[in-house]
Amino acid sequence: MLLQNCLLPDIRQLCDGEFVFQQDGAPSHRAKLTVEFLQQNVPNFIEPSVWPPNSPDINPVDYAVWGALQQDVYRVPIVGLQDLKDRVRTCWASLDQQLINKAIDQWRPRLKTVVKVH
Questions:
Q1: pTM for this structure?
Q2: Count of CB atoms within 10 A of residue 22's CB?
Protein backbone atom coordinates (compact mmCIF):
# COMPACT_ATOMS: atom_id res chain seq x y z
CA MET A 1 0.00 0.00 0.00
CA LEU A 2 2.80 2.44 0.89
CA LEU A 3 4.61 1.78 -2.38
CA GLN A 4 1.49 1.87 -4.54
CA ASN A 5 -0.29 4.82 -2.95
CA CYS A 6 2.50 7.08 -1.68
CA LEU A 7 6.08 6.41 -2.65
CA LEU A 8 5.82 5.46 -6.31
CA PRO A 9 3.43 8.30 -7.22
CA ASP A 10 5.78 10.78 -5.51
CA ILE A 11 8.82 9.33 -7.27
CA ARG A 12 7.08 9.39 -10.66
CA GLN A 13 6.02 13.00 -10.14
CA LEU A 14 9.43 14.22 -8.98
CA CYS A 15 11.35 12.36 -11.68
CA ASP A 16 8.94 12.87 -14.57
CA GLY A 17 8.54 9.11 -14.72
CA GLU A 18 12.25 8.50 -15.41
CA PHE A 19 13.86 6.66 -12.49
CA VAL A 20 15.57 3.49 -11.39
CA PHE A 21 14.15 1.87 -8.27
CA GLN A 22 15.98 -0.22 -5.72
CA GLN A 23 15.51 -1.01 -2.06
CA ASP A 24 17.85 -2.34 0.57
CA GLY A 25 17.96 -5.87 1.97
CA ALA A 26 15.37 -5.36 4.71
CA PRO A 27 13.09 -8.39 5.03
CA SER A 28 9.99 -6.37 4.12
CA HIS A 29 11.72 -5.18 0.94
CA ARG A 30 12.56 -8.76 -0.01
CA ALA A 31 9.03 -10.05 0.62
CA LYS A 32 7.73 -12.05 -2.33
CA LEU A 33 4.65 -9.86 -2.83
CA THR A 34 6.71 -6.65 -2.64
CA VAL A 35 9.24 -7.87 -5.20
CA GLU A 36 6.50 -9.15 -7.51
CA PHE A 37 4.64 -5.84 -7.27
CA LEU A 38 7.79 -3.90 -8.16
CA GLN A 39 8.68 -6.24 -11.02
CA GLN A 40 5.20 -5.70 -12.52
CA ASN A 41 4.89 -1.94 -11.85
CA VAL A 42 8.35 -0.42 -12.09
CA PRO A 43 10.14 -0.78 -15.44
CA ASN A 44 13.59 0.04 -14.04
CA PHE A 45 13.47 -2.07 -10.88
CA ILE A 46 16.82 -3.38 -9.64
CA GLU A 47 16.45 -6.99 -8.56
CA PRO A 48 17.09 -8.00 -4.92
CA SER A 49 20.24 -9.94 -5.79
CA VAL A 50 22.08 -6.67 -6.44
CA TRP A 51 20.63 -4.46 -3.68
CA PRO A 52 23.03 -2.79 -1.26
CA PRO A 53 22.86 -3.81 2.42
CA ASN A 54 21.17 -0.51 3.38
CA SER A 55 20.44 2.97 2.09
CA PRO A 56 19.78 5.29 5.05
CA ASP A 57 19.40 8.45 2.96
CA ILE A 58 16.10 7.27 1.54
CA ASN A 59 14.71 5.19 4.39
CA PRO A 60 13.18 7.70 6.82
CA VAL A 61 10.51 5.25 7.90
CA ASP A 62 13.09 2.61 8.81
CA TYR A 63 15.00 4.93 11.10
CA ALA A 64 12.14 6.90 12.63
CA VAL A 65 9.14 4.62 12.87
CA TRP A 66 10.93 1.29 13.24
CA GLY A 67 13.36 2.76 15.75
CA ALA A 68 10.51 4.03 17.91
CA LEU A 69 8.69 0.71 17.58
CA GLN A 70 11.81 -1.25 18.54
CA GLN A 71 12.42 0.94 21.58
CA ASP A 72 8.84 0.45 22.75
CA VAL A 73 8.77 -3.31 22.07
CA TYR A 74 11.97 -4.00 24.00
CA ARG A 75 11.19 -1.69 26.91
CA VAL A 76 10.74 -4.80 29.07
CA PRO A 77 12.19 -8.30 28.48
CA ILE A 78 10.34 -10.52 25.99
CA VAL A 79 9.17 -13.93 27.18
CA GLY A 80 8.81 -16.12 24.11
CA LEU A 81 7.69 -15.74 20.53
CA GLN A 82 4.01 -15.16 21.28
CA ASP A 83 4.92 -12.40 23.73
CA LEU A 84 7.03 -10.75 21.02
CA LYS A 85 4.21 -10.96 18.46
CA ASP A 86 1.68 -9.56 20.93
CA ARG A 87 4.04 -6.77 21.97
CA VAL A 88 4.76 -5.75 18.38
CA ARG A 89 1.04 -5.58 17.60
CA THR A 90 0.26 -3.62 20.75
CA CYS A 91 3.15 -1.19 20.32
CA TRP A 92 2.38 -0.70 16.62
CA ALA A 93 -1.22 0.19 17.46
CA SER A 94 -0.06 2.72 20.04
CA LEU A 95 2.55 4.50 17.90
CA ASP A 96 2.08 8.25 17.83
CA GLN A 97 0.53 9.26 14.50
CA GLN A 98 2.56 12.47 14.56
CA LEU A 99 5.76 10.39 14.48
CA ILE A 100 4.48 8.49 11.45
CA ASN A 101 3.37 11.71 9.74
CA LYS A 102 6.77 13.30 10.38
CA ALA A 103 8.56 10.31 8.82
CA ILE A 104 6.27 10.49 5.78
CA ASP A 105 6.79 14.27 5.49
CA GLN A 106 10.56 13.69 5.35
CA TRP A 107 10.19 11.49 2.29
CA ARG A 108 9.91 14.19 -0.38
CA PRO A 109 12.84 16.34 0.84
CA ARG A 110 15.06 13.26 1.11
CA LEU A 111 14.03 12.05 -2.33
CA LYS A 112 14.65 15.49 -3.86
CA THR A 113 18.13 15.54 -2.32
CA VAL A 114 18.95 12.06 -3.66
CA VAL A 115 17.75 13.08 -7.14
CA LYS A 116 19.70 16.35 -6.98
CA VAL A 117 23.00 14.60 -6.25
CA HIS A 118 22.26 11.77 -8.69
A1: 0.47
A2: 17
Q: What is the DSSP letter of 1?
A: -
Distance, in Å, from the CA atom of 65 to the CA atom of 33, rounded to the nearest integer, reads 22
CB atoms within 10 A of CB 82: 9
Examine the domain organization and report whether 59 and 48 are in the same domain: no
Range of 44's domain? Answer: 1-52
pLDDT digits (tens, 9 = 90+) for 22-71: 777 778 778 889 889 888 988 888 877 766 555 555 665 566 788 888 89
Length of the chain (residues): 118
Phi, psi of 80 (to 5 degrees): 95, 165
- The tally of domains found in the chain comes to 2
Clarify whether residues 94 and 117 are in a common domain: yes
Q: What is the pLDDT of residue 77?
A: 93
Both 28 and 76 in a single domain? no
Report the C-alpha gap between 106 and 97 in whole angstroms. Answer: 14
**33 and 63 within one domain:** no
